[in-house]
Amino acid sequence: MGQRTRKRLEKSPMPRLGAVSHQGASTTSQQLASWLPIRASADADLLPELGTLVSRSRDLTRNNGIAAAGVQTLVDNVVGVGLRLSALPDYRALGQSAEWAMDWQRTTERLWREWADSPHCDAACTLNFAGLTELMFRSQVMNGDAVALPLWLPRPGSRFASCLQVVESDRLSNPGGQVDSASLRGGIEHDTYGAPQAYHIRQSHPGDYLMGMIGDTGVWQRIPARTAWGRRRVIHLHDKERSGQSRGKPVISAVIQQFKMLDKYSGAELDAAVINAMMAAFIETEMSSEDLFELMGGTAEGMDKEIRKRNRGRPRLKPGAIIPLYPGEKMSPFMPARPAAQFEAFTVAVMRHIAASMGLPYELLLKDFSKTNYSSARAALLEAWRTFRGRREKLADYWAQPCYELWLEEAVNAGLIDAPGFYEHRAAYCRSKWIGPGRGWVDPVKEAQAAQIRMNAGISTLEAECAEQGLDWEEVLEQRARELTRLRELGIDPASLAAVAPVTFVENQNVKGADDGQGPGSTA
Asked: Among residues 517, 294, 240, 242, which one has the least CA distance to residue 406?
């Protein structure tokens, strides 16, 4: 080290005690000194507080209109009327032809609809598969978890014995209230790698005991995650935010406080406005409270009686009324400032915070596009579409696809579907795509033209464009073929219907006016 360098280092100031490289890690600054959150594992952070989060989330969804609307918006756009199966077997891996794949697809989808559109797919025989899908997703959004048990229940009237029992996530818990351990957390047994091995389901909901509906609340059933030959026995939906997280949390967990405080504030403003609307004026008197007490015999009860006596003969306030006053009294108008002038601005600011946390545009959460132009509305809906599409893909991967695989296994074993070597090539046979509700259009004409341009340019396909609108491209083409055939039978030239006058677009910046668990395979 050179002499100049040594002298420069000797003169440089030493770091002060408590100094940090990252200001966000400071423990001495006035703003951050008291902010010392704990650093724990995902389950240690979540599981002790999960019950409180879930109960508060449900309460808000029941009693807060905006919270209920947010959950319903997610359900409508992610699930809608249900997810439609598009079976896509990997015919190349199976050594088959494309024609074979199309025939296999049509047969499989027809049989799937027979099962999925019937309430026999529900163990309770009340919902079809679309209803079960909505229930599972809604439970995941509100509770953080959704649990379903694939069962094997042969029933008259159905060729399939596979069915699904949706279970309230509250019933998934440690037996006897055991403390969470390394291998048992939140009612789920894990191996050393964190893979679920078994689920402990309470025989009845713990809240039934509180409501007097006493059942087997103290009895748990241990259900293995899979059978010995690999068939699923439990389907558990939840979002993982951290490694090692066993359970999920409600979607509004981060804004529960804002939701509740805004609910209180809105209620207080509403109460004040109602009270203010009921009061028009005050009548003032020069007598002091001491004089009034003395006049009425020194008791508040006597004063109250006298006031009621005097007011009994006084006319009620109404338009054009003449109110006589006693000597020394005067009328003072009551002019409240309710609701507060900043009420709307403050409410909108909090709502934007809540909407961002839920992954929704503010306009979509409140269903209010009155102050939005076309560009802003389209940008908001495109951003929302990313959220909806991501959630839909997860729902398809972790719910619809496992259900399809369970059903397909039974259909193959029953001889209804020809699938040689099914267990050796399970992934190739089970390959599929799930179509959800359409994205919708802000300006149908513009966006339809854009879809046509994308297909003509070779950057999109009819399948992709139809899927965005919740349609099956083959069904669209088949229906169009039937329509064209019928037109020709009636002597109508289809080309004459396609000759539409060109549309001239005028850019308008305002949106308004513009633009049990046993099943097949046990012997395999």
From this structure: 517
Least confident of 105-114, 145-154, 445-454: 445-454
Handedness of CA 251, 257, 258, 261 (dihedral sign): positive
Tell me: pLDDT of 463 over 50: yes
* Higher pLDDT among residues 76 and 10, named by residue: 76
Q: Are 455 and 465 in contact (CB under 8 A)?
A: yes
What is the bridge-based pairing of β-strands 235-237 and 188-190? Answer: unpaired
Q: Residue 211's pLDDT band (boundaries 50, 70, 90)?
A: low
C-alpha–C-alpha distance, residues 391 and 78, integer Å: 7
- Domain residues of the chain, as ranges? 42-279+357-437, 281-333, 442-492
> Token pair for residue 113?
């609809």
CB 74 within 8 A of CB 392: no
Note the helical H segments in 416-514: 426-430, 444-456, 462-468, 473-489, 494-498
Compute CA 244 distance to the chain's CA centroid, rounded to the nearest angstrom: 23
Span 289-302, pLDDT tens digits: 565 455 445 555 55
What's the CA gap between 145 and 454, in Å, rounded? 39
Residue with tokens 């009324």: 321
Q: Is residue 524 predicted with pLDDT exceeding 60?
A: no
Helix (H) or strand (E) holding 283: strand 281-285
Give yes or no for a contact between 186 and 172, defined as CB atoms under 8 angstroms apart.
Answer: yes
DSSP assignment letter at 399: I
State how far Cα 7 lies from the chain centre. Answer: 64
Amino acid identity of residue 400, one-letter, is A
339 prior amide bond cis, ω within 30: yes
Query: Three-state SS for 426?
Result: helix
Q: Can you tell me the distance from the alpha carbon of 372 to that of 363, in angstroms, rounded to the nearest whole number?
A: 8
User: What does the pLDDT read at residue 214?
Assistant: 60
Residue 110, C-beta contacts closer than 8 angstroms, at least 6 positions apart: none
Only one residue has tokens 């329509």, namely: 483
Can you read off the two tokens belonging to residue 434? Answer: 């799930």
